[in-house]
Amino acid sequence: MAGRAAVPEVIWARPERTGRGPRPAYTRADIAAAAVRTADEGGLDAVSMRHVAAALGCGTMSLYNYVPRKEDLYELMVDAVSGEHELWEPGGDWRADMRRVAHDTRALMRRHPWLPKLMSPAYGFSPNALRYLEHCLACLDPLDMKYGMKLQLVAMLNAVVTTYVASELATAERVRSLPWSEEQENAVRIAYLGSQVAGGAFPRMAAAFMEDAGPIDLEAVFATAVDRVLDGFVPRG
Question: Is residue 84 within 8 Å of residue 91, measured between CB atoms?
Fold first, then answer.
């Protein structure tokens, strides 16, 4: 099959160009940028070797000379947007710095809504991803803990952010597909839920709603989720 490697390989271990022959018409950065634009505009399903090749102005088979597999194309995309992470000088408060990491990552995923679908350990060791991971570990320097546990913290925080943003994006997509307003939808559902809870069959749910009947602050929910992860890594005693 075209583009299928006979043995496993990492795209970053493969020379971008050899010392022989004419200079390649495109760089990996060119290819990644075209793929990212395609995904930003049409979603991940729009990303194909054919579409990316068309965006570059080359033939599909020519693209395979640069990117052997579609999985490699995905990895180039993840690395490209990973380069958008802010790598500031840590402030010495590991919790505050990791909160900032979480909020920056959430913003990155919102800019590129296809990104949560490609969050995988397999793509976690590209050049820009490694720089991001090193930055996270630098933020955690004040935390007296082995690096293995620090890596767990980063992984758990990324998992929470990814899950939260994926839910946000799915909700937004559903709202866009509604034939009526979000307010109308919510009003109908709240009325139904109220009728069910008022019947007495769900006393704990009724008590929960009585405690906090106001609108949900999604920003506060996200901040709380991040803090819960960080709380779990505070040294005991």
Answer: no
Sequence spans of domains, the chain: 11-82, 94-231
Write out the E strands in the chain. none
Sign of the CA dihedral 33, 131, 169, 214? negative
Which phi and psi angles does 69 have, rounded to 5°?
-135, 155
User: Quick one: average pLDDT of 211-232?
Assistant: 88
* Six-digit token string for 25: 């018409």
The two three-digit tokens of residue 182, written as one number: 């979000």
Q: What percent of the chain has pLDDT over 90?
A: 62
Q: Is 7 helix (H, G, I), strand (E, B) or coil?
A: coil
Q: Which of 7, 51, 3, 6 is nearest to 31 (CA)?
A: 51
Query: How does DSSP assign 60-93, residue by residue?
Result: HHHHTTT-SSHHHHHHHHHHHHHTTS--PPP-S-
Fold for domain 11-82? Arc Repressor Mutant, subunit A (1.10.10)
Radius of gyration of the chain (CA): 23
pTM for this model (two decimals): 0.86
Over residues 22-46, the pLDDT tens digits come to 567 889 999 999 999 999 999 999 9
- At 1 the pLDDT is 44
The distance of Cα 59 from the centroid of its chain, to the nearest Å, equals 30
